[in-house]
Amino acid sequence: MTQVEVGLWAQLVLALATVSIAVLARPALRARLAGSAAAALGVAGAVTGVIALTGGQGRLVIPLALPVDPVVLSPTPLGGFFMVVAGAVGAVAAVYAIGYVHGPSASSTSWAAFATFLLGMQLVPGAADAVSFLLAWELMAAASTVLVLTEHRERIEVRSAALWYAVMTHLSFLLILIGFAVLSAAGHGTSFAAMSHVDPESAGASIAFVLLVLGFATKAGIVPMHVWLPRAHPAAPSHVSAVMSAAMVKMGVYGVLLVVLQLLPAGRPWWGLVLLALGTVSALYGILQASVATDLKRLLAYSTTENVGLMFLAIGTGVLLRAYAVVGPAEVAAGTTLLLVASHAAFKTTLFLGAGSVLHATGVRDLDRLGGLGKRMPTTAAAFGIGALGAAALPITCGFVAEWALLQSLIHGARPEDRLVAVVMPLAVAVVALTAGLALMTFVKAYGIAFLARPRGPEAGVAHEGPASMRVALVVSAVVVVGLGLLPGVMARAVVRAVGLGGIDVFGVSGLGLPGVGAALDPVALTGLTLLVAVSVLVVTWRMARRRPPRPVELAWGGGGVRVSPRMQYTATSYAEPLSRVFDDALRPERDLEITHAGESRYLVERVQFRQQLEDVVEVRAYAPGVRLVDRIGLAARRLQNGSIHRYLGYSFVALIAVLIVVSL
Amino acid sequence: MNAGAATLAAVQVVVMVVVSPLLVGLMRQVRARLEGRVGAGVLQPWRDLRKLAIKETLRAAGTGRVSAVGPLVLVVSGLLVCVLIPLVGAVPFVSLPDDLFVVVSVLLVGTVALALVGLDAGTAFGGMGSSRHMTIAALVEPTVLVAVYALSIPVGSSALSRIVVARIDDPASVASPVSLLALVALVIAVVAETGRLPVDNPSTHLELTMIHEAMVIESSGRDLGWLELGSWLRLGALLGLLGSLLVPWGVAQDASVAAVLIGVVTLVLKLAALGSVLAAAEVFVAKLRLFRVPELLAGSFVLAFLAVTASYLVVQAG
To answer: Exposure check for chain B: N or C terminus, fewer CB within 10 A?
Structure first.
């Protein structure tokens, strides 16, 4: 048995063990035992992934009782990379969950579903044929639906969120199923090896490409199929939303990479354009919605749409440039996708776990009621701050490194000979730049409103730091964000080489060199220089502070008045107000202004009422008509069932006659 | 090579720290004279800094570490930008190319620090300034990146020093339509980023129109001193960068004494000229309404985008 096979077996056994513990253990011990077992399951996935990534081979065949081919698990290096991401995120989230779970999320159903979810997610990138892939995919989808439903008794909105999620995730399943069916018909076999013989120029390949990309994009939360994301993330418990956002949506990205790198490697140019279009629209729309969101987890969910959009943009650039034979930048773009995946996994885990700590401490997700948490929850504040820096793509975090590489591949991609590329690349640069700018604003808002200033609601004033396991998980994920940002080079080169791409080299200590485009970045050198510069400033400040220490005063300048009420502070809504006005046409907020005048005078105002509501435009415009139609069909179909036993007997009779007629033909 | 780069970087930082407040003083003086006032003199910003350094620092009760660290981060990011970009000389560090995207992100770290300082005290004005500041910063970013993308196309690299050196070698490229379009776009972006008219009025005392001043309203003493110095350094560095791109001559390409001396003198002259022109122009424009600013920025983005597409078409024709 090879190491990979041992790893795969270990995952299966550990998942079974976690489920058994969840069911059998006493409630007092359940969280600790099941959490540790789930963390071990995640670690097993990560280790197996690393072995597969470094060239380990292995093939696990599990015969089924069904009359289909056996399940075959045999992770490729690319699959290994995604297994590492899923396993690592799962392990951190499991440790976090030990301290976090309470109420329904501590139930045995929830723990069992969590373990199943982790197993399904870790096996998706290990599948070697379409049937196994779909089985693991469905395991992941079903278990995550159960997890989204966890708090359905406490909060009414959870039910509709779970419904949206279940429908969208099965739509995605259906599209992928049809896509694979088309490919396997053309390739005469359900294994990925057989499918990769399909001629990419054929019509079947293009049909399969469109179906598969739509299916994977739905799972990845790409606009306009993103509608489940901002509902499901706030509904699920925080450790689950962290795994869903940081790892599960990446399986959609894995699927697309599987298609464009392994199954149909020599794609047509328009495939790249399709991916680019999906990516740019998602990146912009996602971050725009995030910048005006006031629900912390909804904000993070939309930011996930943005980040996945950037990944699609990178894949699309790679496919497009490869089709136009711009080899260097094409390779960098494809490799950058993996950087984006790893960095997003790191910082989004940190952010969701941070949001979970805030929720755990205050019970509110509404930024407008938070504030001043930095002093009460220093660990969470520091970790969330680092995650926010990563999401805003600022140095020295992994988010910065990934976005830098993406921009480099874009600005070196255009060639004057190809007019299409020469127009598309600058547009993509502009979109990435605007996205980065808006992300900056979004995360300054998220961090500044939640953790700085004074509490805006009573809950924020009594917040407290969570138990040790939550803090440990937060610190670990924050360290990864900075670690990947400081020393990305060695790991990036190893990963990119293992999956058969080039274009990324080590520069300096462990910086990133992109020989294909002639650019290099060494975060360690940048940090060193910063420290060198900072020393002088620090020495001057220290000497000044020793002479005259700062004095806290209740009323500094007070902005010209007394600091009466914390409600006079800027809130998340007011912070995003200028932006929502600038992008009025895209966001279409609903505003109501009602002024009641005092008596006869037009100048004396008795009462002003202002109401603003921001709804997802795509959801309202594109989905509402469809949902109404389905509702109407459902109501019409209800007439078939009026509860009369005579009618049901009549149906059986008609059905029987029909069957007899069909059989006799 | 690295020793030369280190020498030049050190010279650049020292020169910029000394000159940036003087540049602000000069701009205020030019404006005062044009408006018929006597003015406080070119040295006034330095006197202000000395005063702020010895005054007691007051912090509003309830503010956290951000209020103390934010000003330092702003200054360090300003100094780091002065180290990285080609001002006195265009000799990059071997292990740290002066990549444009890195420079922009270092600037943005300062922007974020300032915005967080504005939020930390928990007053309405601080939040207002912070919110407006970040909105403008978000909208400026596409212009900046696309404009320098346009400038980088002829060189094939996003390293600023290589762009500047290529311009010295080929003076005709400075006046090419692509370069001019990109530079006009960049000027608008720099005006917005440094909070000058018509985007923000640096000398306003009307709270409702403030952006930068609203964020620093709660700071005092050395905190305010650092914030002011940091903002001036950013202004100086960005104007210096414009100078190096617009008039690349005089930028040292090695660390010899003569070249460095010429570099310093030309840098000071460029800064003085650009500062005076900017200040003189400010006399004649009024501040834009905040919600008209995006239109200005959209215009500058269109110019930058035209510059990029034109550069591909021009190359194709030639």
So the answer is: C
Residue A508: strand pairing partners: none
Alpha helices (H) in chain B, listed in sequence order: 2-34, 44-54, 65-84, 100-120, 124-152, 160-169, 177-193, 212-215, 221-246, 257-284, 293-317
pLDDT at B237: 95
Task: Kindly tell me the burial class for residue A472, based on how many C-beta atoms sit within 10 Å of its own C-beta (0-12, 13-18, 19 or more).
Answer: middle
- Position A415 confidence tier, pLDDT thresholds 50, 70, 90: confident
A295-318 pLDDT, tens digit per residue, is 999 999 999 999 999 999 999 999
- Confidence at residue A557, expressed as pLDDT on a 0 to 100 scale: 57
ipTM value = 0.94
Q: How high is the pLDDT of residue B317? A: 46
Q: How far apart are the first and last CA of chain A?
A: 55
Check if the beta carbon of residue A38 is closer than 8 Å to that of residue A114: yes
What's the rounded Cα separation, in Å, for the pair B93 and A504? 21
C-alpha distances in Å from residue A73, one per residue of A83, A143, A454, A626: 12, 20, 53, 38
**B217 phi/psi in degrees, rounded to 5:** -65, -30
Contacts of B149 in chain A (CB under 8 A): 411, 426, 429
Name the DSSP class of A62. Answer: E
Residues in chain A: 665
DSSP assignment letter at A457: S
Query: Do B316 and A417 lie within an 8 Å CB cutoff?
Result: yes
What's the CA gap between B117 and B197, in Å, rounded?
23
The count of domains in chain B is 1
pLDDT digits (tens, 9 = 90+) for A347-391: 999 999 999 999 999 988 899 999 889 888 999 999 999 999 999
B294 within 8 A of B136, measured Cβ to Cβ: no
Which stretches of A453-561 are assigned E, i.e. beta strand? 505-507, 511-514, 519-521, 551-553
Q: How far is CA B200 from CA A281, B2, B39, B130, in A?
A: 32, 40, 21, 13
- Among B194, B267, B199, B264, smallest CA distance to B232 is for B194
Mean pLDDT of A432-454: 93
Residues in chain B closer than 8 A to A556 (CB atoms): 58-60, 121, 218, 220
Q: Which phi and psi (to 5°) does residue A575 adopt?
A: -60, -40
Residue-number span of the structural domain to which B220 is assigned? 2-317
A457 phi, psi to nearest 5 deg = -135, 165
Nearest to B112 among A394, A407, A552 (CB): A394
pLDDT digits (tens, 9 = 90+) for B83-123: 999 999 888 888 787 888 899 999 999 999 999 998 888 88
pLDDT for A567: 77
8 Å CB contact between A283 and A313 = yes
pLDDT of B112-165, one tens digit each? Answer: 999 999 888 888 888 889 999 999 999 998 898 898 888 888 888 888 888 999
Q: Shortest Cα distance from A573 to chain B (angstroms)? A: 10
Cβ separation of A529 and B313 shorter than 8 Å?
no
Tell me which residue has tokens 């560090």: B93
CB A271 within 8 A of CB A319: yes
Distance from CA of A54 to the nearest CA of B (A): 29
Q: How far is CA B97 from CA A231, B139, B159, in A?
A: 44, 26, 6
